[in-house]
Amino acid sequence: MNEFVEQFLIEGRELVSQGNDDLLALEEHPDDRERLDGAFRAFHTLKGAAGIVDFDAMARALHAAEDVLSAVRSNSAPITPALIDMCLASLDQVSAWIDQMQATGELPPGADGQADDLVRRFSTLATADKTSATSDGQAQPGKRSSDAGAFSAIGRELLEAQKLMLSEPAPEGAAGRLESAGRVAANVLRHHGGSLDATDFEGPLQSSLIAGDAEAMIEAIDRILEGLSDRPTALPGTLAPQAAETTLRVDVERIDSLVRLTGELLIAKNAVGHSAERAQDEVDPRGLAVALKNQHLLLDRLVGELQRSVFSLRVLPLQHAFQRFPRLVREMATSLGKPARLMIEGATTEADKTIVEAISEPLLHILRNGLDHGVESASERVALGKPATATIRLRAARQSDHVVIEVEDDGRGIDAARIREVARQRNVATDTALEAMTDAEAIDLIFAPGFSTAGEVTALSGRGVGMDVVRTTIERLGGRVSVSSQLQRGTTVRLALPFTVMMTKVLTVEVAGQVFGVPIEAVVETVRIGRDAILPIGAARAMVLRGRTIPVIDLAEALGQQARRSDTDANVLVVGVGGQLGGLEVDRLGARMDVMLKPPEGLLAGIPGIDGTTLLGDGRVLIVLDLHKIVGNVGGREMLHP
Asked: In this structure, what CATH number is given to the domain that contains residue 343?
């Protein structure tokens, strides 16, 4: 890939992020001149960068956005939701183009047509802004007009986009154009209100416009947007696909640290070579043993430093994941009709690149759940003495070898009694078990597969898959999820994640003469009990540990092997997976160790139940087990068989 293109891709993503941040802040504070100038600079710099790589279509589209922002800067156009939406839509298109270029190294095909659509829509927006100017011809930034001309211009654009969508075959970009026009129209109508001249519109939308009010138009738009749910466009509450980062910016001090460590390792290597020569001469065995021990200690220290330095090269600030959420929260809040703002703290906290890239989806589910279920409507909040606008806080911090992320809302909180009632109705747990649960344990049921307190399925939630996905994903990353809540005060969901996923702590176990590794984060305790204490329950087995019944899986049997164990006692590894406890019966317990996992390769790559592999000190391969698959396939004798 051309070096100029590589630099463009890196800087382009940063400028898109900056532009998004400034636009969202500008919408909340229309008089913030610094944010307006920042947004304008982001578009202007992106346009210049596009020129360097001869991306004329992108430069043309950004020039149209730049013209609109320039009009705002000169006080000849107002800041409106429609303007913010259009500018954000143009940044979405730029981001999509960058993703395509990242994948192919070439300019995206069809970009000219997409750029033409953006230019036309910005022209429509400019026309609407002119018709919404004040009677003396002077626009007022931040003022929202109810002039019908704005509705007419946007309505015509919506109808034209809809006709494209209904044509056979629909041209490229038609779905995106319709959704964007619909979203802009919906926002303008929600914020402006006022009457409409139905004679300005024709076709399928006419019947919904006869009444001449904003609500009828909104319903028509919503119906159109619902029809796009199966199209490849981002609707409120969804994350658009994003290409994985293939480049990292590294602090030069970290590179210098690696250079220094390389020098020290060369010295240590030479010392080991000298000891090897002494060993050949068989001179002074005691002195040789002392020298080798000291050299091993030195190598151990240097390798530890090298590991930390290498890991530091893979880290990214969580801002890379967090930066997408202000926009998404804005869209979801608008869709639900619940005013809300997102406050981000600790976005500079660093974590492994894998963690940063994997955390977006779980956080989206948490934010979506909080907005849909936790946050009250504006009228409810006012009646309760709360601010009409809800506040959601997304914060992160480094704690030792972990990164802690919390999502806190000031909504209605989680009603443990309601959770018990729904759990009883859906047979999530028995009446006896529910009555024995503390409120905290009952609230934890929101992570159960299929559990939802929603009365109906909406575009944002209600299917009972969100929080289940959160726990599964976080545990696969070696982390933990917890939730705390107070009625009428709010809810906090806490994610504790390892700083890096490259290094894993495991406990080794022996099964049928082979050694396996179990992630230490999943191990609750180890027990040795009489074999008669493990009782059959139907086709399964279970034991009672401190008054709690725990299912027991014969790990050798689950792996399709023949166990070698005592007839009297059983070694059981108690593990926590998916918020539930389970027991793994093994032949022997081994040692704890830190390992660097390699993804399964060759025949192992297609076998379920393997998290990765590494080499033991004696040269044997250690297979580290994926407990989610093992425990999820209690009777799965196909495990570890290609």
From this structure: 3.30.565.10
**Domain termination site, one of 475, 498, 521:** 498
Question: Which helix (H) or strand (E) covers residue 524, if one does?
Answer: strand 523-530
The residue from 479, 498, 517 where one domain ends is: 498
Chain segment 208-223, per-residue pLDDT in tens: 444 444 455 555 555 5
Residue 265's alpha-carbon distances to 303, 307, 335, 407, in angstroms, are: 8, 13, 58, 44
Which residue in 11, 203, 2 sits closest to 98, CA to CA?
11
Q: Is the separation of the CB atoms in 595 and 517 below 8 Å?
A: yes
**Alpha carbon separation from 461 to 82, 394, 507 (Å, rounded):** 27, 20, 38
Secondary structure of residue 629 in the 3-state scheme: helix
The rounded distance, in Å, linking the Cα atoms of 509 and 518 is 7
Please answer whether residues 360 and 368 qualify as being in contact, where contact means their C-beta atoms are separated by less than 8 angstroms: no
Q: Is residue 431 situated within a structural domain?
A: yes
Condensed to tens digits (0 to 9), the pLDDT of residues 64-122 reads 999 999 989 988 888 888 888 889 989 989 988 998 888 888 888 889 988 998 898 88
Q: Check whether residue 512 and residue 436 sit in a common domain.
A: no
Max distance between CA atoms of the chain, in angstroms, equals 104
**Is the per-residue pLDDT at 532 higher than 60?**
yes
